[in-house]
């Protein structure tokens, strides 16, 4: 029901850190099924499997309030992880399916849980993830909101 | 020098071990500013992904004990944001079957990460 272009309009992550390709099921304020296909030649690094699941969770939380740009829409940050159990790695060419369930949403802080599967095999269980959205200026006071962080000229 | 990245790892940041024994590991790491990840996390606003902090602690364990296999991220709490220029000091203590890691910047804890590894691994 959502493809990669739709997802780019909803969350601010971009390649090489955009790790959700599609959403096949979305029940507002309740649950979501998202997917990501591993490209390249390496297995998906363990922590990027968790990042990918977290991005799917962000789509569930923000599908009705798109946040494509951090400087104006706020910055998604992780607050806590609990009980994240890892199974076997997800291999190149495999599609991992993320199942996300919203436990509770308080203002801009979301509590979610779920699992990731490849076919019928569970490759990660997520006991609980706490994520929040913070204004860019609150995270980096030195960068005025709306002004991109520019590298020094070479 | 080429830094070998373990197959399950996302970062090539170098961990410098200050101390490693069965009960305690102390290491230092600086985020790799040239990591291509920052182009997308986030455009115009490079921010260290929280999961990278988890990986730094895991990498410190691997630097001391290369054959360990990660079974569970038992818990992780982020206490403050980390700047790309910060040097992170990672202190990991064994607690039964768990590895309790603290990530500090200038002596101030920035994250607490508890990991569990597969049992019976040599």
TrEMBL record, chain A:
SUPFAM superfamilies: Thioesterase/thiol ester dehydrase-isomerase. Keywords: Lyase. It comes from the Bacteria. GO terms for molecular function: lyase activity. Belongs to the thioester dehydratase family. FabZ subfamily. This is Beta-hydroxyacyl-ACP dehydratase.
From TrEMBL, chain B:
It holds the Pfam family ApeI-like. Residues 21-95 form the ApeI dehydratase-like domain. InterPro entries: ApeI-like, HotDog_dom_sf. This is ApeI dehydratase-like domain-containing protein. It comes from Micromonospora arida.
């Amino acid at each position: 029901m959502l493809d990669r272009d739709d997802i780019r309009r909803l969350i601010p992550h971009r390649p090489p850190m955009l790790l959700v390709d599609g959403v096949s099921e979305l029940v507002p304020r309740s649950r979501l099924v998202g997917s990501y296909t591993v490209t390249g030649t390496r297995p998906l690094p363990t922590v990027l499997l968790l990042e990918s699941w977290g991005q799917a969770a962000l789509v569930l939380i923000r599908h009705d309030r798109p946040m494509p740009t951090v400087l104006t829409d706020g910055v998604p940050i992780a607050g806590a992880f609990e009980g994240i159990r890892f199974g076997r790695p997800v291999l190149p060419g495999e599609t991992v399916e993320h199942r996300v369930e919203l436990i509770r949403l308080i203002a801009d802080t979301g509590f979610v849980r779920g699992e990731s599967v490849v076919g019928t095999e569970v490759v990660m269980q997520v006991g609980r993830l706490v994520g929040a959205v913070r204004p860019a200026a609150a995270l980096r006071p030195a960068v005025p909101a709306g002004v991109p962080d520019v590298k020094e000229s070479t | 020098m080429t830094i070998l990245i373990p197959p399950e790892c996302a970062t090539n940041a170098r961990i410098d071990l200050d101390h490693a024994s069965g009960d305690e590991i102390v290491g230092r790491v600086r985020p790799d500013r040239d990591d291509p990840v920052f182009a997308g996390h986030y455009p115009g606003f490079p921010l260290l992904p929280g999961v990278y902090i988890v990986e730094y602690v895991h990498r410190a364990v691997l630097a001391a004990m290369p054959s360990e296999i990660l079974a569970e991220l038992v818990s992780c709490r982020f206490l403050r944001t980390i700047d790309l220029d910060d040097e992170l000091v990672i202190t990991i203590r064994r607690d039964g079957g768990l590895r309790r890691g603290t990530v500090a910047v200038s002596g101030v804890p920035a994250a607490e990460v508890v990991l569990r590894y597969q049992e019976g691994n040599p």
